[in-house]
Structure to design on (270 residues):
């Protein structure tokens, strides 16, 4: 049994199979219409197809608003040069997580635990479909943020960086999975808006225990997302100009996701 899905937001159409986005296209030929279930044959007849558990959600106006497109061309050489120059300067803050410096706030969350353990910062998620985060007592606007991260145990989950975090209802979130996917989105007044759907990247080291170096270069309204020193996407959005940073981990359908963070550094831009 395959779970088929279509997410239609304005002229953007995302195709999904078993909760995995496999393609996204832009087409404005038809703005509205009815839905249907279809089956067909190729060279032979006698086909039988069964459908079950049909669900349809209508998106609200704010949900259906099409986000600004990701910047089409990545100038990897220019990005690498910019990042190299930034790294030559002293970071405004760095943390190897060998001890609790009091920077990272311990959220009151019954479904997640946060701990300093074995020279790393560990987040364990004990409920499905949540993405808890530990916020650092640091407020920045334009910056380069990097951290080592790995899922150490548990079922398939996600982990990443929240930034320009105004509060729990307003922030950006960049996340990856140990299966090689990344995504980018924002929470605005408590409503989640996906800016880049789950997308495959060869830059992500796959598998439990594999350490990925995550990075975000925030320069004005332009965000460059990095994995292991490779830029995977750029996006332009001006919703939040400044805010705190947070380390996040999340579970999908199953619980017990354990993620560790280490070797965090943040540089502010001139």
């Amino acid at each position: 049994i395959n779970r088929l899905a279509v997410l239609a937001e304005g002229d953007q159409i995302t195709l999904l199979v078993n909760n995995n986005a496999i393609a996204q296209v832009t087409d404005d030929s038809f703005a509205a219409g009815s839905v249907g279930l279809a089956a067909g044959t190729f060279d032979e007849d006698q086909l039988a197809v069964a459908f079950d558990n049909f669900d349809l959600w209508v998106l609200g106006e704010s949900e259906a608003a099409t986000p600004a497109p990701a910047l089409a061309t990545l100038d990897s050489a220019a990005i690498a040069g910019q990042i190299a120059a930034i790294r030559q300067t002293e970071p405004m803050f760095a943390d190897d997580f060998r001890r609790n410096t009091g920077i990272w706030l311990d959220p009151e969350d019954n479904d997640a635990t946060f701990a300093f353990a074995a020279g790393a910062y560990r987040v364990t998620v004990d409920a499905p479909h949540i993405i808890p985060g530990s916020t650092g007592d640091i407020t920045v606007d334009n910056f380069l943020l990097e951290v080592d991260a790995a899922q150490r145990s548990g079922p398939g989950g996600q982990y990443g960086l929240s930034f320009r975090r105004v509060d729990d209802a307003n922030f950006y979130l960049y996340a990856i999975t140990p299966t090689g996917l990344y995504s980018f989105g924002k929470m605005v007044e408590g409503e989640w808006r996906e800016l880049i759907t789950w997308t495959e990247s060869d830059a992500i080291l796959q598998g439990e225990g594999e350490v990925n170096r995550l990075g975000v270069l925030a320069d004005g309204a332009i965000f460059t997302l990095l994995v292991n020193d490779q830029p995977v996407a750029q996006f332009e959005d001006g919703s939040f100009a400044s805010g705190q940073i947070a380390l996040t981990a999340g579970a999908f359908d199953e619980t017990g996701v354990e993620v560790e963070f280490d070797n965090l550094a943040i540089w502010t831009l001139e």
Remarks:
- The radius of gyration is 20 Å.
